[in-house]
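Sample 3 of the quickstart, ligand heme C:
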Amino acid sequence: MSQIKIATLGLAAAVAVSSALVAAPAFAAGEVKPPKSVHFSFEGPFGTYDRGQLQRGYKVYEQVCAACHSMDLVAFRNLGDPGGPEFSPAEVRVLAAEFPREVVDGPDDLGDMFERPGKPSDYFPPPFPNQAAARASNSGAYPPDFSVIAKARPNGPAYIYSLLVGYEDPPAGMELRDGAYYNSYFPGGQIAMAPPLFDEMVEYTDGTPMTVEQYSKDLSAFLMWTAEPKLEERKRIGFQVMVFLVVLAGLLYFTKKKLWRDVDH
Ligand code: HEC
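Result:
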C-alpha cells in the first residue's frame, strides 16, 4: 500500500503547483459594479502576451495617459525585453528620444540640473515634479502611478478596461462633486479624471480598429505587462516544474518498489 502513498504524495504536490498556476486574483465584491467580462490573451495557465497589442497599448499610454500618469518603475529599455512588447533596440532608442517629455539629468559642471532627450537606460520621466503639483493640476485628485496598477487593483486589467469604457451620464438626481465625472466602475461612482479616450485619437497602422474599446483593451494589456513583466517566464517554468514533478513521482514509485521487493509484508 505504501508505494501508492508515495506516488500519491508526488501527485498531490503536482496538483498543488498546478492550482497555484491557475489561481486568479480575488475580487472584493460588494462595493462597486464588478468589471465587465473581457478576454485577454495572457489569461489561463498557458496564456501569453500579444506583442502587437502591447505595442499598441504603449502607443496609447505615450500619446494620452503619460500626460498625467507616471510609470516610475519602468525604463525605456524594458520595452525591448523578451516577454514584453519586444520593440527592437533601434525602436527603443527612438521611443526614448521621442518621448513627449525630456529627462532631468545633472548636476553639470556648474552644479545645474538640465534636461535632455531620453536614452534606453532612463526610467520614464514623470509628468509632475511631485504629488502636490499633480494634485494641483487635477482638481485635487492624484493620478496614480501606472507601474503596477494592474496588480494593485482587484481584477486589474478588466477593471481598467471597464473604467475606461464605463463613463455614463449620472443617474437622475445624483449631484456630482466639482470636477468629477460619473463612472460606476470607480469606487464611489465619481472620478476626477475626464474620459481620456475618444475614437480615432491614436493612429494604429496595423489595421486594428481605432475605437475607445480597442484602445482600452490594448492599454489594459500593456499595463498588465508593466505590472507583471515575467508572466510568460513564470508560466513556462511552472509547466516545466509540473512535468518534472510527474516524472519524479514515477521514478520514486519504481525506486520504492525495487527497494522493498525482498521484504515480506
Ligand atoms: C488629464 C490628466 C489625466 C489623463 C490624461 C489620464 N488620467 Fe487617469 N486619472 C487622472 C486622475 C486625476 C485620476 C484620479 C481620479 C480620482 O482619484 O478621482 C486618474 C485615475 C485613473 C485610474 C483609476 C485608478 C484607481 O485608483 O483605481 C485609472 C485606471 C486611470 N486613471 C487610467 C487612465 C488611462 C488608461 C489613461 C489614458 C488613456 C488616463 N488615465 C489618462 C488623470 C488623468
